Amino acid sequence: MVYVFPPTLIGDSSPDLGKSLDDALRKELNKLHDLVHNPSYEEATINFFSRQSDQALDQLFYGDCRKICLDSIRNLIQKMRIDGFYHLTSNLDEETIRIQLLKVDSNEAREQTDFCEKCEIPEIATRVKKLVWQVR
Predict the structure, then answer these.
(1) Dihedral of CA 16/20/21/22: which sign?
(2) What domains are there in the chain, each with its CATH number?
(3) Which residue has the higher pLDDT, 101 or 39?
(4) CA angle 24-57-75, nearest 5°?
(5) Once rounded to an integer, what is the mean pLDDT over residues 84-100?
(6) pTM (2 decimals)?
(7) Residues 111 and 135: beta-carbon distance below 8 Å
(8) CB neighbour burial string for 46-64, b if at least 16 within 10 angstroms, e if fewer
(9) If you ran DSSP here, which 8-state letter would residue 12 be given?
(10) Which of 61, 64, 66, 86 is nearest to 76 (CA)?
(11) pLDDT: is 29 or 93 the higher one?
């Protein structure tokens, strides 16, 4: 079982984008894993990271997860008794969006990034699905 942390949206984006990205990510991941669905996990994850280090939480939210962030995720994976953790970050800068998917399990961390210029939500969702297969 894996946990999918809600996407982080950076920049001026619509609420529809966040929901579409989350839906696309979960739909594709469901083909590979059983997903943990517990709304309280989001708050528990944020609280866990905050107790670990503000730096780790900032790294997670801004798509720059390094050693302290990765160690925190691995500790969280053990505490939650899950197999993995996924997090999607999108960063909209004028007409270009950067989407980044992070996958962490007890053995490794993988990350893939894609850029899309002047893309509509369906195209961005398609790119999210491709990222899932690239990090698996």
Answers:
(1) positive
(2) 2-135 (3.30.160.100)
(3) 101
(4) 85
(5) 93
(6) 0.91
(7) yes
(8) eebbeebeeebbebbbebe
(9) S
(10) 86
(11) 29
